[in-house]
Amino acid sequence: MNSSSKTLTVALADDHVLVRSAISLLLSTIPHIQIGPEAGNGKELLDHLASGATPDIILLDINMPVMDGFETMKEIRKMHSAVKVVALTAYEDDLALLRLYKLGVKGYISKSIKKEELRMALETVADGNEYFPNLLKGVIQDDAAHDLLEKLRSLKERELTFLKYASMDIPYKEIAQRMNVSRYTIDDYRDSLYQKFSIQSRIGLILLALKFKPIIGGQ
After folding, report:
1. What pTM was computed for the model?
2. Of 24, 30, 31, 96, which is most buried by a Cβ count within 10 Å?
3. Which residues carry this modification: 4-aspartylphosphate (predicted)?
4. Buried b / exposed e along 210-219 (16+ C-beta atoms within 10 A)
């Protein structure tokens, strides 16, 4: 069903009362939008969800006390994976948004967003697409890099940890010790990444890790 004809329930988590009030007021002027639960931090939002709230979309602030957007997003992904999340931020922070993208956030909007852009963002995400305007152009909105990001997002946590270590100047034997696994397991991680990303050497792993360092971490 096209989002323009479907009523969307939108929840909001932001620690600033005035920001929540302003965005709620904006939401109330958009047709087919129903305002869902509001929260001052991630824990309050998760409590609403645990109590049975079922929003279609959550507008999630990145920087909040008690539980920030990153930790909240991890819990949403585990317990409420069907809910779509759009990051809400007062400033453009590529690294923070890349981390959230890795966690499954479907879009980003500024807290100073206008009505028409907010409507467009909500409808875009509700229709199963992503909304990252004017940001991450060199990473997410480049088709080839987008494909790499999708593959990266599908990796298991241990594979990401291995990739981080593989980008450092340490031998595979030491990586195995740091990860507390056998050398054979390390070989499996390496071969899996070689296959998934069409890489044929450790240099390729290093280049991959450097390209997406904000997501996987590392030195």
Report:
1. 0.65
2. 96
3. 61
4. eebebbbebe
Mean pLDDT of 114-132: 91
Residue 162: name the closest of 145, 198, 170 by CA: 170
The CATH number assigned to the domain holding 82 equals 3.40.50.2300
Residue 209 has a pLDDT of 80
pLDDT of 56 strictly over 80: yes
Q: How many domains does the chain have?
A: 2
130 shares its domain with 148: no
pLDDT at 132 over 70: yes
Going by C-beta distance under 8 Å and a sequence separation of 6 or more, which residues neighbour residue 43? Answer: 66, 67, 72
In one-letter notation, the amino acid at residue 82 is: A
Strand partners, 85: 58
Largest distance between two CA atoms of the chain: 60
Q: Using CA atoms, how far apart are residues 201 and 205, in angstroms rounded to an integer? A: 7
